[in-house]
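Render Histidinol-phosphate aminotransferase in 3D.
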Amino acid sequence: MTDFTQFATPGVQGLRPYQPGKPIEELERELGIENIIKLASNENPLGPSPLALEAMRSAAEGVWLYPDGNGFELKQKLSQKHGVEMAQITLGNGSSDPLEFVVRVLVQPGDEVLYSQHAFAMYPIVTRAAGGVGIEAPAKNWGYDLDALAARITDRTRVIFIANPNNPTGTWLDGVELEAFIKSVPERIVVVIDEAYYDYACDPATGAEGYPDAVSWLAKYPNLMVSRTFSKSYALAGLRVGYALSSPELADLMNRVRPPFNVNNLALVAASAALDDKAHLQRSVAMNAEGLKQLRGEFEAMGLDYIPSVGNFISVDVGQPGMKVYEELLREGVIVRPVANYGMPNHLRVTVGRAEENTRFIEGLKRTLAST
């Protein structure tokens, strides 16, 4: 049998597939247990807006037709929401699509892409797949150290990824320091601000004072790109729809490599309807703030260190290899996320769930730590 690995590009040969959170169905098959809760993938426990669900039901009979490849209606609403031209919008099958597109457009073999230690795993994956060289700057207090990032800019740098807030640490950058950094970067380098958790971080209840809306800077910095997603606060993770906002010139380049019909019919109408349901979004954000407060209080009572987060998740140091605790929690029917692959071997990342789900996780964690 032919080993095709030898024919793969060098970048792909060195990759490992992205590892998502364990699906509920997989745990049911493995352990034969029921009543499982999943707090592993930063999904919104409230579920989608009723308006989004109704829009999908209405559109279901039309799935035999290809979707609008340009996503006109959704782009029109996003244009109005953000005050940008439709030509500045690139739609994606999740926000990971435009993160890949920008690298495919700008990075040639040997070019460099910068990101931080403990940053989202897709940044090195899309970089290496394109033949680029990933340059990881050391973190500071679990978050981005912009001085360390700036010190690593070279003539080969093409893209800089900054997640704000960062996943899996939940750390964030304020507007003054972040804009100063963007201003200092040469215009030939695209700075990508990944705002997947924007709606949670901008809620005053999370405590992220000075947290910026990077979209407001697009007119000043033509080398800026901002990505957003409907997977988190809008609870449409299973539909995979996200987008990037940038200069029209960069959006044009990314749309040249965007696959045809990369956002399906149901995703387009659901995302469009979700934008109309501001009350549902507000409930989701408020529930998250309460959940973060609940989990922080429990960790403090247990004497566990955690990383202050402004996302819809929190990473906690369990004082021992996190994988061992994760596996014991699976037997409790609780799925969380081990993050040793992010250089955090003793941490678990926990999605903020409903109050009763958070309580069940804490109870399971207490039993697990008492027995290990």
